[in-house]
Amino acid sequence: MKTGLLFKYLRPYTGRLLFNVFLRTLSAIFTIVLIVSVAPLLYILFDAGAGAETGTQATGGIANAGIEILESWVNVSMVRFGKPVTLLILSSCLTGAYFMKNLCAYMGLYLFSPIRNRMVAQMRNDLFLKFMNLPLSYYAKQQKGDLISRITNNTQDIDNQMLNQVQEVLVDIVTFVFLVATLFFISVPLSLFVLVLLPVIGMATSFISRSLKRKSRRLQNLNGQISAQVEESLEGMKTIRNYNTTRYAVNKFHVDNNLYYKLNCRLLHRINLSSPVSEVLGTIAIVAILIIGGYLILSEHSLKPEAFITYLLAMIQILPSSKNITTAYFTWQSGKGSLARVKEVFDADEVIVQKPDAKELKSFEHEIALEDVSFSYGEKQTLDHIGLRVEKGKFVALVGPSGGGKSTIVNLIPRFYDPVGGRVTIDGKDIAECRIRDLRDLSALVSQDTVLFNDTLYNNILVGNPGATREEVEHAAKMADAHDFIMQCENGYDSFIGDSGTKLSGGQRQRVSIARALLKKAPILLFDEATSALDTEAENRIMEAIRIEGKKNSQTIISVAHRLSSIRQADEIIVIEDGRIVERGTHEHLYALDGLYHKLCQMQNTANSES
Ligand code: ATP
User: Fold this and answer.
1) Which of 230, 405, 434, 558 has the fewest CB atoms in 10 Å of its CB?
2) Distance between CA 281 and CA 275 in Å, rounded?
3) Tens digits of per-residue pLDDT, 575-608?
4) Which residue, judged by its Cα, is nearest atom 2 of ligand 1?
5) Which residues' Cβ are closer than 6 Å to ligand 1?
6) Beta pairing class for 572-577 and 395-399
């Protein structure tokens, strides 16, 4: 049940919600008081005592008795204080009741508004946490913009279309119940007729709601698609301009945006239709009541005219309440589309989960091992029974043709994915049995796609180790060959780098990312083509500095490289092709083998000499 998610979030506020219901009930009671007080007022104004002589005296009914009690109070008051003072007293009571009705309604709202906001904030917090914990494989299937839309638009819709409706409709439901009770109090036969009529009105309007939920879901999905398109186009702005595909991007956007507008119009038409339909049906009901009520007064003499006026006032009051309830129901239905999209994220499997009895993994002392590891992203096998041991302090390079599975191996070590066969161990402990946080503390990864934040250079490096000193940050930057260019920036380390580091060159971005990883001082460094945007000379210089520093600190380095000159010094080079290890050894050994590695080296030498 999708609404179960909503109730889960509302549960902590049960006490406040009940108090809110109590206040709303009070507000509804005051509404009833207002309606019922009108009869004695009319009695005074039109001197209804004359009615007795005109033969409109009713013969029975609880309501008639109730109204008679009120009228007798009014009579007593008129005798004691006179008509004007009685009118003044009654008017003051009416004003007081109005004031109390609105005060209670306001207090109810005052209590509910923070609940709404806190609930949505909590839902967003939980969604964001879920985003942070979902496996990378989830993101391969989802569009970023669509996910952003779920955490922003859809949670907002849940607030507007569901919680807001709960807030609004609560008073209407309570008023509705009290008013129906009042109707019965005044006239049972008339109310039995109304009781038959109301479900008929309900059924007549329910046809509108049928497709509402489906339409809203489609609309929300489309909204997510539009957000994804905007996000993609903004990110790929250079490519769009360079390939002159602006028109294509704009047209694509227009198509979806127009569809959104049309669907939204259709949805709003449906929602808007609910109000006039229920109003017309309500008016028909009032006319029918007028006819039956008139009959009860004039022919049967079982209803007093002022009681009937009170009845009509209550009925007129019921109509907006029932209309609001209907509208709230429709809007609630359309909000369910958003709730479903949020729930979908909550229900997504966190494939990479920590076992309840997960072990500590505070240090890395001996070796990382991939034991007979197989892996696939989908149908096709990406890694095929890989066996690999990397001793602490060693520098191991993964090389080979594109698509062979090198990055996949690197991603298995911090457990971004779990192998489908075999296991990955650190010091003999299966990493799937260890605490994820401990495991990720042990390694620092720099991938080909640099991830920088719209902040200063200093803060971007500091992400690697928020407790580091300025000296440590600068040392890491020097190691990554970033210090010099940073010092040339306008504000040095305090220079802002723009959205995703757009103010930096590709090579500079990579240097900052490397500095960040080095600052972490993790015992395992994972480089996945981390220097691909640098020139050969800079790449060799940085890799050599890292290698030397790594040896000094007994850091283990696993580096994926395409430019083979940067990994010549590696302790072991692993050649991967089609998910299998085809060669392994030092540069000299592999070169002498005259196999795939030799061929790759020769191809690069030829390319270098040609350029
Ligand atoms: P390159 O040198 O080009 O970076 P690689 O050797 O690092 O390649 P991987 O990135 O590990 O290769 O990819 C291995 C295979 O897995 C490729 O065929 C690739 O298409 C596929 N692959 C990689 N990531 C995903 C993913 N998220 N979803 C599905 N398939 C993937």
Assistant:
1) 230
2) 10
3) 999 999 999 999 999 988 888 999 988 887 776 6
4) 402
5) 140, 377-378, 382, 402-408
6) parallel
